[in-house]
Amino acid sequence: MDNINRIMNVYNVEDDEDDNEIQGFIVFGVPRQLYVRQNHFDNYDEANFERRFRLQRNTVLQFLQLIEHQLEYAMDMNNSVSPMNQLLVCLRFYSTGGHLQAIADFAGMHVSTVSRIIKRVSAIIAALGRRYIKFPDTQEAIKACQRKFYDVASFPRVIGAIDCTHIKIESPGGNDAELFRNRKSFFSINVQLVCDADLKIMNVVARWPGATHDSTIFNNSRLYAQFETNQYPQCILLGDSGYPNKPYLFTPLLNPVSPEEQLYNEAHIRTRNKIERCFGVLKRRFPVLAYGCRLKLETVQAVIVATVVLYNFIKENGNDIVPPLPEELDQHAFDILIDNGQIPDIHAHEAQMGEMRQEFINAYFRNLV
């Protein structure tokens, strides 16, 4: 209490009505800073707006309608941040992955306000995951998905391409921090994605440390349980050699010999390339996923799912053309960061080749030779 009284006396801030003006600007000797918030939604033309926030203006308005009621404050006191400004702050962070101080200066807010907004808005957007991140749920939708994959390289029954990508993070600290260090020696979350032939993401798992193997993530996922219980009969996932070969998950052959095996591998590679393209498009749309996210672990997980929700929302309702990278971001560095450099781990049983996969090759690809 003596220290507080001393500080109050130094700056002559007394508890008196006559000094309300001084109290309004000085709190314990720190001048109060009044921020001037810019109207970024109206200040930029369409091209500059999309370059800074990665979404078109109309798409932002459409998406804001979904979450506006959750972003509004009960009372408009103390110059509260509007739902539109909250969303734009979050989008600006996704678009750059920059320091919070830089985002705060851009938005005309204190850095603590920006931090709270990103955490809150990301959680609200991520909560829409069940609505926008899902497998086709009708036979007609499944058949349509399989036809689109078939048109790529004549590979039948494919419903999705699966793979994992690393999202760079800061060390989370604690006894388990090293679990997040991946084989490329940086800390990350290993994120599993499944996409369709249109590069729309149908499944995301964003909770495993970077040192976790791709097959471990899949074997402990809800998707694994769904395919094991035959919820998607006559449907195939395509994965790289890091995954175990299953009746519903086909991997490439290690040493194709016969013409039908070579044709199978070629069709597999061309069809599974959809997930590799999906990684590039997603990280180019939201560069925070490529350059890394310097937030707490729980917030990073929410950011990952939130960007996937926005990515799918754009595919359904917005302009699917990916805008160029902002001028302050380096294209060459970006290309390096989205290159996962994954070296597939060949399982021991791959040398024996699964019977289901070999039967499939003999029954289908032999007829195409």
UniProtKB/TrEMBL annotation:
Annotated protein name in UniProt: Uncharacterized protein
